[in-house]
Write a structure and sequence with these properties.
single chain, alpha+beta, Muramoyl-pentapeptide Carboxypeptidase, domain 2, 2 domains, four-stranded antiparallel beta sheet, three-stranded antiparallel beta sheet, 38% helix, binds zinc ion
């Protein structure tokens, strides 16, 4: 008797977990979100020693074999890694953290993008634009803590966990799907406009970045008008490194990275 009772409980438990999973997955696909940057303005000063990071992923990535013929782009190219809710950071993705030296202290990101990032910051300065990085590399723990903090805030207001999760996933990128976690994205503002709001797009710094980022291999990752494709709100401060060749196509054609993949890979 006891055995069949345990089996019954197990079945019920499995059923509950399955329903919960479906509910969570459904929510994470449904809404445009920000990438959590607004919560991450303050950053730790980085260490100077480089370290290799193996990024744990939240789920499997589907294979991207579209059999594209004669394009110059390689879908295995680390620079072009597609990261979004449908494509979490691949399980075997790893990179080496390097240090960005800034007026606000040392910060970290993938060491391979630092040279061009520094050139961009320096050239902007020569044009009278004082850019400031406010959110560089973020580890999984940091992303999870941003996400959980949001959930707690809503639960303190009386929401159930499920409702709080649903609302939070519209405001903060689900852990495992943030480009910051892969060390390839930076939130950049300027000394005269220090909040992460759409208005940054109209500042001289926002305009300079949009016009020039591609020359250094960066793209405006979440453009206005592409929210339904990227799943993320317009973020004029979030820049993603993809390498100069791809960046020039993306910015010139005013497409997002998802559309670039569709067309060129
Ligand atoms: Zn960002």
């Amino acid at each position: 008797m006891k055995k069949s009772c345990d089996e019954g409980q197990m079945k019920r438990l499995t059923c509950i977990i399955f329903v919960l999973f479906c509910f969570l997955m459904g929510n994470s696909f449904a809404y445009p979100a920000s990438d959590g940057a607004a919560d991450a303005v303050l950053q730790d000063a980085g260490e100077t020693a480089a370290e290799t990071v193996a990024v744990p992923a939240g789920a499997e990535t589907e294979s991207q074999d579209k059999g594209s013929a004669d394009t110059a782009f390689d879908e295995q190219d680390w620079k072009l890694t597609l990261i979004n809710k449908q494509h979490p950071i691949p399980e075997d993705y790893s990179f080496t953290l390097g240090t960005i030296k800034t007026d606000r202290g040392n910060m970290k990101c993938d060491e391979r993008i630092i040279e061009e990032l520094n050139s961009m910051m320096q050239d902007a300065k020569e044009d009278g634009i004082h850019l400031a990085i406010c959110s560089p590399y973020r580890d999984l723990a940091r992303q999870e803590s941003l996400f959980n903090r949001k959930i707690k805030t809503y639960m303190r207001g009386g929401m159930t966990y499920m409702d709080a999760y649903k609302i939070s996933s519209q405001a903060v990128t689900v852990p495992g799907a943030s480009e910051h976690q892969a060390g390839l994205a930076l939130d950049i503002i300027c000394d005269t406009y220090t909040v992460l709001e759409e208005g940054f797009a109209d500042t001289p710094a926002g305009i300079w970045l949009e016009e020039n980022c591609a020359r250094y291999g960066f793209i405006l990752r979440y453009p206005k008008g592409k929210e339904l494709i990227t799943g993320i709100e317009f973020e004029p401060w979030h820049f993603r490194y993809v390498g100069r060749e791809a960046a020039e196509i993306i910015m010139e054609e005013e497409i997002c990275l998802e559309e670039f993949w569709e067309k060129y890979l």
